[in-house]
Specification:
PH-domain like; 5 helices
Length: 193
């Protein structure tokens, strides 16, 4: 019986090589999910507030209360869907920086996931963008990695402490380039055939 699932931690991921070490696992900043939750909380009570305000106008109509509660239950079904959608997008959009590569795992809806990876040797430029008063105060923003060749840019969106993450990536990039002259994987060469 395989119990390897119990050994999984935040530093373990599908496709991780035995010689690979995770430097940092990055999620979006907590404020992004907090703002979504505040919006959903307001959306939860808004129909009830409107109902009690409008109740006096529709008091003479037969069975209007039953119709409202039926519509509100359908609304609640959609509200729960939005809640789980926001939580899923927050927790499954991740960026992993290891000592060999960067993995960008993006969730697009409940059943669509895109995983991209970038070898550390292909990094040409990293820029940090923090826009606005609140992002500056809470120190979150975007980190963009320009790669060699035709590969698209890697963008870490709304991450906490993007300058620190940039420093970690640059440190790992420099160590990788120093240890892997000519971008040859030394760990793969030393494996017995």
């Amino acid at each position: 019986m395989d119990l390897s699932i119990f050994k999984i931690s935040k530093y373990t991921f599908d496709g991780k090589k035995s010689y690979e070490n995770v430097s940092i696992l990055v999620y979006r900043h907590w404020i992004t999910i907090a703002l979504s939750m505040i919006g959903l909380l307001l959306a939860l009570f808004l129909p009830l507030a409107l109902y009690y305000i409008a109740k006096s106008f529709f008091a003479n109509y037969y069975n209007i209360e039953s119709i409202f509660w039926f519509c509100y239950l359908i609304y609640m079904l959609l509200w729960w869907f939005a809640l789980f959608y926001n939580l899923t997008m927050y927790f499954l959009d991740t960026w992993i920086v290891s000592d060999h590569r960067i993995i960008d795992s993006k969730q697009h809806g409940f059943f669509k996931r895109k995983v991209s990876e970038l070898n550390l040797a292909k990094i040409q430029d990293i820029s940090v963008e923090i826009k606005g008063l609140i992002p500056t105060f809470l120190d979150y923003g975007n980190l963009e990695i320009q790669t060699a060749g035709t590969e698209p840019k890697f963008v870490f969106e709304q991450i906490p402490h993007p300058s620190r993450v940039k420093d970690i990536i640059m440190r790992e990039h420099n160590k990788y380039v120093e240890a892997h002259k000519g971008d040859i994987e030394v760990h793969e060469l030393s494996k017995p055939i």
